[in-house]
What does this fold into?
Amino acid sequence: MNKVQPSILPGFMELLPNDQHVLDTMRNIIEKHFKKYAFLHIDTPIIERSDVLLAKGGGETSKQVYHIDHESKNMSLRFDLTVPLARYVAEHYHDIEFPFRRYQIGKVYRGERNQKGRYKEFYQCDIDIIGNDVLDIRNDAEIPAIIYDIFRELNFTNISFHINNRKLLNGLFEALEINQGEEVLRILDKIKKVRKDVFVEMLKEADCNDQQINQLMDFILFKGSNQEVLQMLNRMDLQSELFREGLFELTEVYEYMGLFNIPDANICLDLSITRGLDYYTGTVYETFLNDYESIGSICSGGRYENLALNYTNNKLPGVGISIGLTRLFYQLSAANLINYDVTPAIDVLVIPMLGYEKYGASVVTKFREANITAQLHVEEQKIKKKFNYADKLNIPYVAILGEEEYNKSSISLKNLETGHQEILSVEDAISCLKEIKQGK
Amino acid sequence: MNKVQPSILPGFMELLPNDQHVLDTMRNIIEKHFKKYAFLHIDTPIIERSDVLLAKGGGETSKQVYHIDHESKNMSLRFDLTVPLARYVAEHYHDIEFPFRRYQIGKVYRGERNQKGRYKEFYQCDIDIIGNDVLDIRNDAEIPAIIYDIFRELNFTNISFHINNRKLLNGLFEALEINQGEEVLRILDKIKKVRKDVFVEMLKEADCNDQQINQLMDFILFKGSNQEVLQMLNRMDLQSELFREGLFELTEVYEYMGLFNIPDANICLDLSITRGLDYYTGTVYETFLNDYESIGSICSGGRYENLALNYTNNKLPGVGISIGLTRLFYQLSAANLINYDVTPAIDVLVIPMLGYEKYGASVVTKFREANITAQLHVEEQKIKKKFNYADKLNIPYVAILGEEEYNKSSISLKNLETGHQEILSVEDAISCLKEIKQGK
It folds into this structure.
């Protein structure tokens, strides 16, 4: 019979079970904290109506959308979780309680060209808080608090939240009478990426004069402690309502980030952060691992005025952030930075000697009743091979059952790391394994 | 601005957060037991190469496959989790340890016509144990034990596992000199669905004579206790090696199901169970909720000789079962049979009075540090509206913080179900909420 070559498509991530378990642990940590902060789970379809997904139109992303080859010609795979959220909130507007705090962790699809570390199918982990018409600014301070908790559990404590507020810049544009605000914002986003002379040239092309350029650069490059940044902004005393609003909001967000227990050392009020996407209107975040800045921002987000304006006239302001799980896992793995606690997927492998399989079945059942993750290995194989199997699967303990153990209603429990082995009653073995499990 | 109608495609399931939480609880129960029985998680791409997915060719399913409209013309959405498993095991054969116990919970896609309760996107929850060349028969007894644990936690104890072994029927065909075995098997699968005279006519058309038909019907319709079924089979003493193998296997599986703690009352050795799919070769299972037989088999599966024969020459026998989560949830909801314990998604809503928002932020942070799921509600709204919000979201407790509470470093904790309210120190409130959470 002709065989089909078994392989996945290029640009898709697929892991072996041990690596999958490490990724799952990261995912579980993320989800645990999303829940702890009272975000509700939703699970939207991966296939949506093309006209819904592409309502905004244009952009690089729309070229990367996978369409389904189907008579209706109106089915596509989602390319992010934000557009489906907008559609969800607009569609279920009357059945949703606001503020609506939702999380979603799911696969999204982009037909990007093949590149190392870029995937066509990847997980996004999104949280957003959506208000009905209004949403209190203090919500903006909670978002980085969640991210802080997550990365602390992932063993990254040296993390920086770079926070800014778009209203400050837009207010500054007002005060400096800069007209091409959107274009200038896009240029300012490149401050860390291009040479200074190129940068200045770009601003000139966007109709900025020398004085404007100097004031813009002094502003976004201001360095100082968080208190000094706020003092500087207060001293500016610009004649712009928008600027004053931005300053009030940034001050509130900064203060509440502290109340939500983010240490000041992890907060960086950074006037150079703008975020390229044009739908952010207030607070913007980027997040960096200080020891590994080359990885870039590990999650970004911000405040937007109107989530679902393509679908509804209801004004739905929100604030949110997204973690690109697949890419983050790839980057941390590649840089050898996976350093969080991964509990074993399987606690114990039960190996009965020939003729003691039934005893093995009853022991493994008792383990499972005690919520110990246990596998019975009754295949006809040499015991050495079974130990090797436990080793390969990172199973820390084996329980060996033979005549002696059966006669004593006991098991021989062997710690594969230390080599230590002892005969224990089944009950004592359960207590021992539970203690180890909980101690982890 | 023109608005796009916000809606999902017909035939897709999407839930509001409260219902989603009920579904998630079911999913978590399933996953918990899969893990407890030492199945390892894998997560294959939803998009696979079309030639891989359709290697087997033909069949109703292949017409329902969604293809991606892409230049490569070789990308499709998976329609089950079995084909991707076969591809995975063949592809990673040298990196997998056997027996390979894997679980996967994921969305699969079938372009079925629109029908109530049938979805084009649905979750399957699969477990399989794959051997390299051989796989011990006692694995077949573990599979229903897992399903039993799951449905017990879902509060269905009156569940029946109908078990048979294909080798018995195939052996009987040998002994009765029935040639069109596959065709006859397909007909026998219809025993419960068609009238007796129609059934007999179908068998005649498959070249069975009256004597063969009588013996077949006596066999598959045999009624008796499990012991009586085994005794009857032993008495038959057929001249067929295959039959003897089937009898040995069925006896082993039955005995070990008991050792894995499935009560005999929940096991039904049922010689009429054949399962339509032609790739089962030994043990076959169907599972029924006895009080709701109209729902049909809630999960089915069995033993197969060769998982990945389309991709590799390695012989990979396996045994597995699949739960169709989306459909099961739909059926149980529609029949009002959701009866398992659903813990609240959010434990407590923290409502600070005007001017006490900062105290609110510090209280909610303490709750979260104690792993209590807590939400801070600082929107400018009447308190009645906030209580109503808690009610709609099924949040059982609210913590109210005003001047008195602030001065005493305490909170007023109100149970929304009983109406009971008391002032507690933050620490006591934490203890109280943790106790309630753990007691659930």
In short: The longest strand of chain A covers residues 100-109. The CA atoms of residues 181 and 283 of chain A lie 17 Å apart. Chain A is about 40% helix and 20% strand. Residues 17-36 of chain A form the longest helix (20 residues).
